[in-house]
Amino acid sequence: MTGTGVSRSAGNAETVTGGAAMPPLVVEHVTKSYEVGGRIVPVIGDLSLTLREGEIVSIVGPSGCGKTTLLNTLCGLLTPDSGRIRWHGREVSGQPQNVGYMLQKDLLLPWRTALGNAMLGLEIRGVAPSEAQDRGHAMLDQLGLHGFAHHYPSTLSGGMRQRVALARTLVNEPDVLLLDEPFAALDFQNKLLIENDTAALVRKSKRSLLLITHDIEEAVSLADRVIVLSKRPTRVKAVYDIALGPERTDMIAMRQSQDFSQYVRRIWADLDVVLQ
Amino acid sequence: MIADVDTAMPRSTDASEPVAAPVAGRRWKKLRSTAIVLATQVAILAAFLGFWDYMTSQNRAAAFMFGSPSAIAGFLGQMARDGSLWRDSYVTGSETLLGFFVGNLVGTVIGLSLWYSRFVSRVVEPFVIAVGSIPIIALAPIIIIWFGTGLISKVAMSTLSVVIVALVTSYKGAVGVDPDQINLMRTLGASKFQIFRKLVVPASLTDIFAGLKLTVGFALIGAIVGEFMSSSEGLGHAIFKAGSLYVIPKVFAALVATIALALILTFIVGKIERLLMPWRRNP
User: Do B16 and A157 touch (CB under 8 A)?
Assistant: First the structure.
């Protein structure tokens, strides 16, 4: 059921000409290996996936399965050994345009205030300082950081720092967001709150989001689709379309719905975790 | 009514705010512990000077060999009155500052720009280590031949004592930048120069200032060694002359002035550091 759904819509997109209707991200048969001490260690083995416009896709996989390698390959920080990565139908060399990238580490620059950090991307792209400031302020306000614009990161809590990092990513108005375990270091409460905000902002502006996580509940509650990866060399093991109703921005309601635990249990079984 | 709302507002939103108002009691506690540390330091110094003064007052030979705090104070007073203390400190101070400035500027600029090219830094590394291992004092005679016996030769000595340390510390700082942070800059579309200016330089400031604090002393040593070799003024000259004439207390008096100079320069560097890195100030 799920498999046919994926291939049918991907086929539709292929036949449409013109960049606008192309899915933002198509990954085809990508492989990547590392050389460690003279030995070739395959990390990604023949991986294909599609991220459609306005879609939230979560990727879960066993620990050390190469999720971060995948993400770094997608944003052009690593080059795949073979296979194709197409952004809006085109292969790009180097960093793709209009892609936002966020990690578990907030990577805030300690010498910049919250506003200065939020503005970083705009500044790099040469946006006029006054406009950059206005947009930075607006984004911080949207993420509940009103009044903290001039605080240095060292004076902010972990949740607030991660919100600043999210503001830094979103203020560039990327078409696609690539998030690598962005909320993993947060406590449960903060995590739910920031997940809510992320879902609301991404869905409102119809952006696409690829979320790499090890947290199955996070994956299911946020995403339209969950891709389960296998152990190394990583490939797609299973794909789940998550049907939890049309209203998808309340993380607590998501977690309380009946199907939610069903999905979590099936994905958990797929991950094939061996408990001691 | 409005006042009510204003005072209620922060309380309702501060569920996860870490920013606590400084508590008066805590500040007082901190002040008191600082005072205790200071008092202990003064007590140790007083005990040391008292012991020194007492021992040398009992024995004329010891007084000749080791000087005595009271004789040192006497010489300091005399040097202050005849103006030589200020003149010598000024001469050595300007040599030190010039050497400190030139050495750190050159060293830091080279050290940071080595970040730009892995190739160049690999080529240069053995040369840097080789130059860094030369004892500066061995160069002093050549420096005097090249630059004469005036100010320039002392500044050159001082610069040489500083430049390699400044180069190595700033380079260490530049290559120590978190690679994830560089990746982030790249995904934001930053050019190599933007990464350098917006990330590498500010991130290296901590290491650069550690280098500055270290090199204040090195710059002073360079200037004094230069003065030892050949000079007509400066604290190094005063130390050398008094030593040659066996006026031990005067040697110590000039040393006290040297230490004071080092402390003042270190203090100034610390002030500048706080000014340039406001994010490291405690809230």
Answer: yes
Q: Please work out, in degrees rounded to the nearest 5, the angle formed at the alpha carbon of residue B120 by the alpha carbons of B118 and B124.
A: 115
The reply to whether A204 and A126 lie within a common domain is no
Contact A111 B205 (CB under 8 A): yes
Residue B74 lies in a domain: no
Q: Within a domain: residue B57? A: yes
Residues in chain B closer than 8 A to A101 (CB atoms):
183-184, 187
CB nearest A124 (choices: B17, B190, B203): B190
Rg of chain B in Å (alpha carbons): 26
pTM above 0.90, yes or no: no
Residue A62 lies in a domain: yes
ipTM over cut 0.85: no
Count CB pairs under 8 A between chains A and B: 66
β A208-212/A25-36 pair status: unpaired
- Within 8 A of B201 by CB-CB distance, chain A residues are none
pLDDT, one tens digit per residue, over A170-218 is: 898 888 899 988 888 888 888 888 888 888 888 888 889 999 988 888 8
Cα–Cα dist B274/B277, whole Å: 5
- Cα–Cα distance list, A66 to A1, B47, B134, B157, B198 (Å): 27, 65, 48, 54, 31
